[in-house]
Design brief:
alpha/beta, 14% strand, 286 residues, single chain, 7 helices, Rossmann fold
């Protein structure tokens, strides 16, 4: 019998299988213990071919350490890219004139807002859940013609009324901005009406003046059913709201001087208070 046709002992085959498994475990080191080419004697025997099939399966087994190494490289690459983008972003801001001083102030403003957040949450809870707040009372037919009413807990007797026109640079004004003022004054037995009105670009200054005038008319003619005294109505405005409310008073006074038909009178307003407003009276406002 020639050496090529000799049968392979079972102990030798098991040893080769063990070496192949150890070779797969050491893939990262790139030091195979044996060559990928099997050292078993070649022969036409079908038994040898059947015995080599498990070796092929072993060679194609997945290599987990290599995957872990690839994941580590990808993670490091992502971190490096993130650092690069962040550094370039700060550099771009510096080229645009936005220096580190501005960024520091922005961060300080964010921290300041976070410190005030507990107070904001308390006011928001009062605004949405207090039984003394009547939200979004409709006073006109135009968009955003609504107002919020803050009523005292004690409903006995007629109460003085404060009509408040919020600010917001004529762009971001909203009736809820007066919730803290409404809370404080209603606790002192005063009814507060915070008016909402169309902002730019939804409306012009003339539209804002018209909306606020409509809201004041509603308060003068309907506040009695909420416990308010129509003979003790006070008008307040802040920032853009101060400008709009002052324009409303002047426009209403001009109408009355011309003996035009009006729904409310300037004489019904007992006092006016405008805070931080730019009182510029333009012809298109009046």
């Amino acid at each position: 019998m020639s050496p090529a046709s000799r049968p392979v002992p079972a102990s030798l085959e098991s040893l080769v299988n063990e070496l192949e498994e150890m070779n797969d475990r050491r893939t990262d080191a790139h030091e195979p213990l044996i060559s990928r080419v099997s050292s078993l004697p070649a022969g036409p025997s079908a038994n040898n071919q059947r015995r080599r099939k498990p070796l092929a399966k072993t060679v194609s087994a997945p290599c987990y350490p290599r995957r872990q190494s690839s994941f580590s490289r990808e993670l490091g690459h992502a971190a490096a890219e993130t650092y690069l983008i962040t550094r370039l972003s700060f550099k771009l801001l510096s080229y645009l004139g936005v220096g580190y001083r501005w960024i520091t102030r922005l961060l300080a403003l964010g921290i300041y807002a976070m410190l005030l957040m507990p107070g904001f949450i308390q006011v928001a809870f009062y605004y949405f859940f207090s039984p003394n707040v009547r939200r979004s009372v409709l006073y006109g037919s135009q968009p955003r013609n609504r107002l919020d009413l803050y009523l005292p807990t004690d409903r006995n007797g007629s109460k003085p009324v404060a009509v408040f026109v919020t600010g917001g640079a004529w762009i971001i004004g909203y009736k809820a901005w007066g919730s803290l003022l409404g809370k404080q004054l209603s606790e002192r037995d005063i009814i507060v009406a915070c008016l909402d009105y169309r902002n730019f670009p939804q409306g012009t200054i003339g539209d804002m003046v018209e909306d606020v005038s409509e809201g004041i008319s509603f308060v003068c003619n309907n506040v009695a059913q909420y416990g308010g005294d129509p003979n003790r109505i006070y008008l307040m405005g802040q920032s853009a709201g101060a400008h709009i409310s002052s324009c409303v008073l002047v426009k209403q006074a001009i109408k009355e001087s011309r003996e035009e038909v009006v729904c409310w009178s300037v004489s019904q307003i007992k006092a006016y208070f405008g805070s931080s407003g730019g009182q510029v009276f333009c012809p298109f406002c009046l």
